[in-house]
Amino acid sequence: MPLRRLPGLRLALRRRSRARAKRACRRVAKALISAPRAPRRVRVSSSTRRATHWCSSARRRITNASGRCWLQRVGTGPNVSPAGGGIPIGATGFNYVLLNGVGDVRVILNAFAQNNHLSVLSTPRVLAKSGSEARIEVGTEVPVITSQGSTNTIQNAGTTGILQSIDYRKTGVLLTVRPVIHSGNRIELTVSQEVSAALPNSTPGISSPLIQNRNISTDLTLSDGQTVMIGGMISESRTADDTGVPYLKDVPGLGLLFRNQSLTRERTELLVFITPYVISNDIDSVAITEQFRGQMRAWPVPSTNLRW
Predict the structure, then answer these.
(1) pLDDT (average), residues 100-109
(2) pLDDT band at 289 (very low <50, low <70, confident <90, very high)
(3) Higher pLDDT, 296 or 177
(4) Residue 142 lies inside a defined structural domain of this protein
(5) Which of 90, 95, 200, 219 would disulfide-bridge 71, Cβ 3.0–4.6 Å?
(6) What is the residue range of 62's domain?
(7) Sign of the CA dihedral 17, 18, 23, 25?
(8) Could you tell me which residues come within 8 angstroms of residue 129 by beta carbon, excluding any fewer than 6 positions away?
(9) Is residue 141's pLDDT more than 50?
(10) Is the peptide bond before 82 cis (omega within 30 degrees of 0)?
C-alpha cells in the first residue's frame, strides 16, 4: 500500500528500523483508508407542474386543423435526450425525458407558459443521506368515514344513536426519496411522488369526500445535477353545451338554425421534474443554502397598501 495515497502524511524513519517501519506504515495506511467515512448527502429537488391544453368544437367540428387537442411535442434542443427528438408529452400517456442543463428546463417550461397552459403546483426539496430514505409531506389530513352503524340507544331528541368510525387520509404533496451515491457521482434514486386533493362527493348517502389521487413511483440513475422530466399522470374532462333561442331551438329541422352545439375537452397532465444534487462537504451545503436564500429574496413582497 503506497504511502502517497495519504496526502499530507509525512513520516521520518530511522535507517536501522526502516523496513519494519514501512510494514507498520502500510498497515496503518490500510486501516485509515478502509476506515468508515461519513456518508455523503443528496438534495433532491422536485417540481410538480400542471400543463393544460383544451380545445372546443362548434357543431361537432374540431377547430384544430390537425384534429388533435392534446399537448404537442415541445423543445428540440441539443441537450435533450435524444438530441432533437422533442418532448413526447401526451402522446402515449407515460413519458420521460432527460435534461442535461437548467436552461433546457426553462425552455420546456416557457413553451407551456406562453399560452397560460402551465401552473406550478409544488416545488418540494428534501435532503437525504446516501442509502437512507427521506420524506416530506405538505397537505391536509381529511376525515373519511370507514364504517357506520346504529345502536338501540335512544338519544335526547328521540332518534337512534349512530356509531361512525373515521379515518384520516393524507392529501396534498407527498415526496419520498432514497438516494444511493455511486462512483463518478452517479446517483441511484428511488422516488415516489403523490399529488392528491379532497373533492366534493355527490353520491347519495355518502358524506365522505372524494380523494383525487395521482402518484408515480420509479427507480432512476442520474448524474449530479441532471434533471429528469416525468409525465403521464393525465386527466381528461369533456363538457357539452347546447345553447340557442328558447323554443325555436327545439323545433325539429328548423331548430338547427337557432341552435349552437359545442363540445369542450380539457386534458390535464402533471409534469414532474426531479433533480438530485450531491453534497460532498460543508462547502457544498453552504452554497446550496445561500442559493435558496437568494431565491427567497427574489420572491415578490406583498403590498401593504390595501384597497377596498
Answers:
(1) 52
(2) confident
(3) 177
(4) yes
(5) 90
(6) 38-285
(7) positive
(8) 39, 40, 41, 42
(9) yes
(10) yes
pLDDT band at 171 (very low <50, low <70, confident <90, very high): confident
- Report d(CA 198, CA 122) in Å as an integer: 17
Helices assigned H by DSSP within the chain:
18-34, 102-113, 282-297
The owner of cell 376525515 is: 143
Q: What is the mean pLDDT of residues 190-199?
A: 85
Residue 220 amino acid letter:
L
Does residue 121 belong to any structural domain of this protein? yes
Phi/psi for 6 (5° steps) reads: -110, 90
Do 218 and 230 meet the contact criterion of CB atoms below 8 Å apart? Answer: yes
Q: How far apart are CA 234 and CA 23, in angstroms?
A: 65
3-state secondary structure 210-251: EEEEEEEEEEEEEECCCEEEEEEEEEEEEEEEEEECCCHHHC
Per DSSP, 29 falls in state H
Task: Please count the structural domains in the chain.
Answer: 1
- Residue 59 near residue 189, CB atoms below 8 Å: no
pLDDT tens digits, 233-247: 666 667 777 777 777
Distance CA 49, CA 229 (A): 11
90 assigned to some structural domain: yes
